[in-house]
Amino acid sequence: MLIDIHLSEARLSGYGLSPDSAAKLFSVYNNKLLQRHGIADSAIRQSYRYYLQHPTELEVVYAIVVDSLSLREQRATTTKPN
Fold first, then answer.
1. Is 16 left (phi over 0), alpha (psi -120 to 50) or beta?
2. What kind and span of H or E run contains 2?
3. How far apart (Å, rounded) are the C-alpha atoms in residues 5 and 67?
4. Is the Cα dihedral 13, 19, 24, 30 positive or negative?
5. What is the pTM of this model?
6. Model confidence over 28-69: pLDDT tens digits?
7. Which residue among 3, 47, 48, 52 has its CA within the 20 to 30 Å range from the CA of 33?
8. Domain ranges in the chain?
9. Which of 35, 31, 13, 30 is nearest to 22 (CA)?
10. How far, in Å, are 11, 36, 57, 59 from residue 71 at the CA level?
11. What is the per-residue pLDDT for 4?
């Protein structure tokens, strides 16, 4: 889910939208992601509260997210034709 969120944010940043427009569009993307992953909004809030109390665990999760995103980027750049 976090990987998909960051990919959505990256897509939106490439659109050159105003911050207000980008926030509205991200809200739509976020709702679609929640539906696709079958995750309730309340579960996201509960998870957020948990990680606020356990920041070291969040660092571990984000290390995995960053590694995954880096790997995807690497694969994308090596598979593109010149």
1. left
2. helix 2-13
3. 15
4. positive
5. 0.76
6. 999 999 999 999 999 999 999 999 999 999 999 999 999 999
7. 52
8. 2-79
9. 13
10. 17, 23, 21, 18
11. 92
